Amino acid sequence: MSHLVQSLLSSRRQFLAGITAVGAAAACACTRNDAPAESATAAQNAGDQIPEAGNQGRICVHHHYGPPMWMKVLAEADALNVEPWKDWTPAKAIESMDKAGVRTSISSITVPGIYFWEGFGNQQAPPGAKLKNDVVAMARDANEYGAKMKADYPGRFGIWASLPLPLVDESLKEIEYALDTLKLDGIGLTTSIGTKYVGDASFSPVFEELNRRKTVVYTHPGAAPCCLYLIPRVGPTTLEYSQDTARTIVSWIQSGQAAKLPDVGWIFSHHGGDIWSQRFVNGEYGTSRKEFENPSKPPERLSLLRKYYYDIAASDNWFMIQTLKQVVGLSQVVLGDDNPYGEPLDYVKSLKELVNDGSLTVEEVNAILRDNMLRFMPQLKAYQATT
Questions:
Q1: How far apart are CA 120 and CA 224, in angstroms?
Q2: 358/354 Cα distance (integer angstroms)
Q3: Alpha helices in 102-200 (DSSP H)
Q4: What angle in degrees, to the nearest 10, is found between the helix axes of 135-152 and 68-76?
Q5: What's the number of domains the chain is made of?
Q6: DSSP assignment of 287-327, as one string?
Q7: Greatest CA separation found in the chain?
Q8: Which of 42, 77, 306, 363 has its CA 20 to 30 A from that of 36?
Q9: How far is it, in rounded angstroms, from Cα 384 to Cα 377?
C-alpha cells in the first residue's frame, strides 16, 4: 500500500469523527439541548454494556486470509501488500479476534481476487499490471488452505470459497468441491471479474447453481480495468472500490438476475459502497420523509436491496450506519473488520461510541455483531458451540 493511501486510511477515523460531530450537532441539537442531564449521562454510559473482549460469540464476515499460491504469485509480481501479510498466521488473526470478542471470522482472499488476465487494480499493483495466472489452481489452493484453517481452529474460521471465474465450467466444478467436499460456508467474489460484473449473462450457469443451493455470496470490491488510476495520485480505495460495489449491485438487479434468482444470498462490503447516492435507487426515496415511509407504489429496487446484507468495514461511523438504518434497516447490517488490514477491536469501540451518543441501542449493536448473521446463516450456531 502506498504511503499516500496509508496516510489516507490512517486519517479515516479522524475525518469521519469530524463528520459525525458536525452531522450530529446539526441533526440533533434541538432534542439534545432539551434532554434531561440524567438521560444524557445514562446514554453516555450505555456502551459499557458491550464488552470489548472475551468470548462474546461475535461473527465477522469481512476478514481475509493469505493462501500460499495467492501470496506467492502476487509477491513475485510486486503486487502484494507486504506489510499486513509479512508475519500473518491464522493464530495471529485469532489474537486480534479475541481482543474484540469475535468468535468466528468468515474469511476470504482479498483484492485483486484470483483473476489477473485483463489487468487488475489492487492498491499495490502497478498501473496496467496483468498476469496470465492459473485461476483454477489458485482457487483450489485457496479453498483447500481455507478448509485446513477451519479444521485446525474449530469454530474460529468460516471460509468464503474462491471460484475460477470467468471460467464457468471450472467454477461449477469448484462449487461442488468447495461446498460438498470441503464444507466451506459460501462463495467469495470480487465485485468485478476482469471487465464483467455478476449480472453478466455468461455467468448465469454459476448463479443458477448457487441459487439452487441457496448459497450466500460475499463480495469484496476491487477496481475494474476500465477505471484504474483515472485521477493522478488517487488510488483505488479512495473512489473505485465504492463505485465497483455499486456497479455490481446494479449489474445484478438491472440484468434481471435478482428477480430470476432470488435465493442467492448477498453480503456487500463497506455498507454497499456508494449505491445509496446513485440515481439507480434515489428516485425511489421520494421527495419527502412522508413519501419515503409511505410510498404510493412499492419501490422495486429498494425492495431488492432490503433483502441483502451489508458489512461495516471502513464505514463504522454515524453517517454510514444511519444511512443503512434508514434505507434498509439495521437487521441487514453485519460486522466486517477487514483484518489484517483493520482491527476488529476498533469496530467494537466505534459501535460502543454510537451507543453512547444515542445513535444506536445496545440491542442494535449486538444484532450487528452477532444476531443478524445467526438469523441469516443459522448453521453458524454450530461454530458458537465448538470448543
A1: 7
A2: 6
A3: 135-152, 168-176
A4: 130
A5: 1
A6: SSHHHHHS-SS--HHHHHHTTSEEE-TT--SHHHHHHHHHH
A7: 65
A8: 363
A9: 12
Predicted confidence (pLDDT) per residue in 53-66, tens digit: 999 999 999 999 99
Judge contact between 221 and 273, C-beta under 8 A. yes
Q: Which amino acid is at 10?
A: S
Q: Is the pLDDT of residue 32 over 50?
A: no
Rounded Cα distance between 8 and 314, Å, is 12
Instruction: List the end-to-end C-alpha distance of the chain, in Å, as a whole number.
Output: 37
pLDDT per residue over 225-269, tens digit each?
888 878 888 888 889 999 999 999 999 999 999 999 999 999 999
User: Alpha helix locations (H) across the chain?
Assistant: 3-10, 12-32, 37-46, 68-76, 82-85, 90-99, 135-152, 168-176, 204-213, 240-254, 257-260, 279-282, 289-293, 300-305, 318-327, 344-356, 362-366, 372-376, 381-385
Distance between CA atoms of residues 140 and 114, nearest Å: 11
d(CA 10, CA 115): 29
Question: Which residue range forms the structural domain that includes residue 233?
Answer: 3-385
pLDDT band at 353 (very low <50, low <70, confident <90, very high): very high
Minimal CA–CA distance to 371: which of 11, 19, 155, 56?
A: 56
Separation between Cα atoms, residue 37 and residue 29, nearest integer Å:
14
- Radius of gyration for the chain, computed over Cα atoms and rounded to the nearest angstrom: 21
CA distance 311 to 284: 23
Q: Which three cell numbers stand for residue 45?
A: 454510559
Which SS3 state, helix, strand or coil, does residue 133 take? coil
Cβ count near 284 (within 10 Å): 18
Question: d(Cα 162, Cα 254) in Å, to the nearest integer?
Answer: 25
If you count them, how many residues does the chain have? 387
CATH number at residue 15: 3.20.20.140
Instruction: Give the span between the Cα atoms of 100 and 77, in whole angstroms.
Output: 35
- How many Å separate Cα 218 from the centre of its chain? 7
